[in-house]
Target: glycine--tRNA ligase
Amino acid sequence: MSVSEIQQAKKTVEFSRESLEAVLRGRFFYAPAFESYGGVSGLYDYGPPGCAFQANVVDLWRKHFVLEEGMLEVDCTMLTPYEVLKTSGHVDKFSDWMCKDTKTGEIFRADHIVEEVLEARLKGDREARGLGAKPVEEESADKKKRKKKVKEIKVVKLEDDVVKEYETTLAKIDGFSGPELGELMVKYNIGNPVTGDKLEPPIAFNLMFETAIGPSGQLKGYLRPETAQGQFLNFNKLLEFNNGKTPFASASIGKSFRNEISPRAGLLRVREFLMAEIEHFVDPLDKSHPKFDEVKDIKLRFLPRDVQEAGATEPVVKTIGEAVASNMVDNETLGYFIGRIYMFLMKIGVDHDRLRFRQHMANEMAHYAADCWDAELHTSYGWIECVGCADRSAFDLTVHSNKTKEKMVVRQKLETPIEVTKYEIDLVKKLFGPKFRKDAPKVESYLLNMTQDQLAVKAKELADTGKITFSVPEVEGELELDDKFVTIEERTRVEHVREFVPNVIEPSFGIGRIIYAVFEHSFWSRPEDAARGVLSFPPLVAPSKVLLVPLSNNKELQPIVSKVSTTLRKAEIPFKVDDSGVSIGKRYARNDELGTPFGVTIDFDSVQDGSVTLRERDSTKQVRGSIEEIIEAIRQIAYKGVTWDEGTKNLKPFVSQEAK
Amino acid sequence: MSVSEIQQAKKTVEFSRESLEAVLRGRFFYAPAFESYGGVSGLYDYGPPGCAFQANVVDLWRKHFVLEEGMLEVDCTMLTPYEVLKTSGHVDKFSDWMCKDTKTGEIFRADHIVEEVLEARLKGDREARGLGAKPVEEESADKKKRKKKVKEIKVVKLEDDVVKEYETTLAKIDGFSGPELGELMVKYNIGNPVTGDKLEPPIAFNLMFETAIGPSGQLKGYLRPETAQGQFLNFNKLLEFNNGKTPFASASIGKSFRNEISPRAGLLRVREFLMAEIEHFVDPLDKSHPKFDEVKDIKLRFLPRDVQEAGATEPVVKTIGEAVASNMVDNETLGYFIGRIYMFLMKIGVDHDRLRFRQHMANEMAHYAADCWDAELHTSYGWIECVGCADRSAFDLTVHSNKTKEKMVVRQKLETPIEVTKYEIDLVKKLFGPKFRKDAPKVESYLLNMTQDQLAVKAKELADTGKITFSVPEVEGELELDDKFVTIEERTRVEHVREFVPNVIEPSFGIGRIIYAVFEHSFWSRPEDAARGVLSFPPLVAPSKVLLVPLSNNKELQPIVSKVSTTLRKAEIPFKVDDSGVSIGKRYARNDELGTPFGVTIDFDSVQDGSVTLRERDSTKQVRGSIEEIIEAIRQIAYKGVTWDEGTKNLKPFVSQEAK
Model:
């Protein structure tokens, strides 16, 4: 079938998540981890086809991003000490709000429970008013991911102003703090939806897994919640590796961890997941991109902030060039990566019509971020954030540098030197030891790290009064120094080098979520055999490329099977032999579920003349040729981007009754 | 230089670990993680060349093992619940013995401290006797990995019988339990080697990182200490995926974690490391291997158990075929994997002369293991275990199956049905509930899971006395049942299916250790430039394949640089441009340290006639040809196993003064 015929078939046989999951579980794309031990929610294992698919996606990611842009890939540890994540803000802010039911011991995510209960009441109200359900499209993505806690909808009509209030609350649900959620629960009398019992007020639950490093148990650590911090901490080494020049990008592929309160949506919300992250370091004064022209004509669906603020969901379709020119997307580099993300997603089989780029709302975005766009993929759970693409400004390097006192800057030689006037402070250090004893280093460090604004104030104080007073963290009392100890002056110097903290553009990929979306986008059933599914993966990322099918278990066919196997192995084309003895049709159907793009059939004619049959998964078209011809066609189509028609143009069409 | 010339150079310029580490750190192959935060011992990050080298090794591993054998690769979670690791034995046994100095708070590994102190005393004794140091070869590998705790050697002569006793103790050091180590410390008066203070008796320190899964904190989990358990737990799904047939193998590549007490030896003993493990499931009655012939003529250095027991270190050199035929290696499948491991290590650049296969001694091997061989690589730290290859019998599947009550067996249709006589037990279950109430399921389960031996005893008891007495774990008191409740009989049935628990052959690779050994094996210096190192990686695994060097920063050369870059990118050959402006010689020297096998120089002739120069890293030979010819030569040599001479035979030799 052609692409449009598959689209037609998708309309004929409606998508069913249950059917897809039956295939994915039945063919061991994935399975709940530790199933025989009762399982652990939010943990999944990838079986052979899932693992191979993931490996192919990662391999392609590496070629598409790392190799193409000459990125500096690093592999940093997952174990991360407390101090690092304290500095990055994760210890304080990487949390969700949870409420406990003290009677049953159940734990609920506060925002989810408020959302669900209010929605259930609104639904009951609509039924009481004789109105239908709200259209599915309008439901929030995240909500649909979860199995409902509210088991029963009570048909109760609400006051009109209550309906309005609930709706307003739901529209802002992502923006409430924990205490605010607690107030809403009291105000709207929201408790355990099954028993009705009151819940304890929301408390913050940090989503990082904690552990102790070393035998003493003293060094607290976490499993990283993202791969980014390791890249930031290695910035100086990476800059040196790159001969001191920016822009450059680092990249990292690896597992990260989030101890979700109540993970439910299958592969979409898990506690251990594969990420691929890029940190592109760029001059804050020049975010142009030399290869921007290569992406500027790509047309995308954008959902910018203002459209969302107006309550609309209709995307704006324009080219990346237009998006950047109109300042909708902040800068060229951000636009370039949006384009590259789009191209990558297309290569691995995302449905073009089910991708949009959504801009973060003001309250979603970190205070330091300049702009942020999520690539969202549409699935049966709604629109899912799969790739984030943020301009994080200089935040990360600045906080780590402030904490460690290690400078993280780029030094750029100025073509024309410039005069810079600024305050400078000089300490007569030999006097500090006698005066401050063990506190001397802290006092010195405090003074040497004052900002220009602070220095301006202190310079005036020193000039006016002959001394400065100040206090230093961890040092007791107010301190005082006169001008024998310290000089603060405004001086003008000629600078030949410009020093700057680069900004970071961060495309961040949730590989597991992308993979699940591709599963959904690739799944369909033939109208004549609706009970069986087909996973139409692009050959490049398909878990296995070829199913080798001897027509029967007759020993005569064995040498040909061996010969084709050896040739495929030598060509490094992954394949699988199915000599299970069931009918060819059944074997092909099984194979369609595995998403294997090509079947090679060996029959008794093969023994005579060395020819074999090649079958294409989607169209079920078949051609016949020599082993070498067939394998070359597979190689061209699977790896070189050649079309089926082009790749098989010199091969004879083949029709058989059995091998449909 | 040819291989033998490199060997010659290695003799001229002696290996220096300091020089190697300076290169590895300087070129950012790796760095201590969180260095700007003071670092965490045992945690390292791989920078761009280390990360690329690792990715290439993993890619080759996948092709060499997974693709070649059609293995079923899985990707299982690192987070693992307590119960699973309790069953596998890790909770109880995966630990080292540690001693605390209560005064200083220092923690020592008990076996290490005993070993170090006794060795220091023996060394002092040898000095007192005027004897030289022991030859380095004889020192144990593990000992040399550690920075010494004993800072000072006291020259004190010991009694002859004390020397003998110390030597005997050291020879058995790996075999002592914690309490035995404690006794030795008392007996030999071993305390903190610096202060002399007494240490607390050894306590077991479990090496797994612990964490809590989920918001309640109730579900205790660990970071996996190996990837194997996930593969065992998925056995039934893998067997089904393989159409119910054995033998087959699963494989997994991923990080594992060990909370080492005191990690010191750089990349060799780390807390987070990459493993690649294979679990080959095989019929216990038939461990032959169909491809054994492909490896049987490979000659290897074996260090079998009996040689070690005799105190010798001279390996036995024989073919794998001879090793299996003489029962030195237990079976063909184990032998086959030993051969494949050897081939893999050769491909990635291990020095043939610095590899041996050492058999586990009786006290090293798990009680259930049938045989175990370690591939050890020789480094400046001594002989290091890098790959384990064990026949683990049916242990793992059996313990998990016993715990979960999920059968993990292979069902094999028998060609000729057989008669089997065995005891069977029948319960009249409707009587169990009234008699045992809530304990009924436990009692039933106990009775139904009795072994044939137990049943034989109980059958006799029932026949003799009309009743059986027994006790059930977690059920109070002795229980009694008469023949109204239970029947136990010997019955003969015709069986058409044979059921068996497969045995597991487990090749397990420590990728980080292998990589470090390859670093050492590949490192040498040119006698004429001994201060600079060369890393002679095989092109296939080299981090980057090509350094692109424009002769100057003249703009005229730019179009050629772009053209070569585009062509290399299209051919998916990783490369790096060095337009840093330092001399070509310096750029090549830098590149030698990165182990890049090829240099492509662009000069002003390139602008005229489109030709470029190709330089080979080891020999510094140069040839000249068109861009297409040069890149094709690179492709053939780097990826297709073609030699330099063969790959460049149609290209003109090139000599220049500058580009040496």
